[in-house]
Design brief:
Number of strands: 0
Distance between the termini: 9 Å
Largest sheet: none
Order of helices and strands: HHHH
Shape: globular
């Protein structure tokens, strides 16, 4: 389920971009984090696993990657606002298997 924000609520991406980002998370991130985001080569991206981590840290990891791991930087495809939106969606359980 995609949480549709009304006309860029909280400076998030527009609805069409939200849909693109959701697909990116499910397919591109899912390639390593598991198609249901419950873990694989990379750790699970479930609300339970992300709950204790700050949004800022998670945005930093998404944009900058993790050195010496398979986690690449996504800053060439995402901006900070989009990465923040992804973090909020993952933490709320809006993206991924229920």
């Amino acid at each position: 389920m995609l949480i549709a924000c009304s006309a860029q609520a909280e400076n998030g991406p527009e609805l069409q971009r939200q849909q693109q980002l959701q697909q990116m998370v499910l397919h591109d991130c899912g390639a390593c984090h598991g198609m249901s985001l419950k873990g694989g080569l990379g750790p699970a991206l479930t609300p339970a696993m992300l709950g204790g981590k700050s949004d800022d840290l998670l945005v930093e990891v998404i944009l900058g990657g993790r050195e010496n791991t398979a986690m690449p930087p996504w800053n060439s495809l995402l901006n900070a606002s989009e990465a923040t939106w992804i973090v909020k969606q993952l933490k709320s359980g809006a993206i991924g298997a229920k």
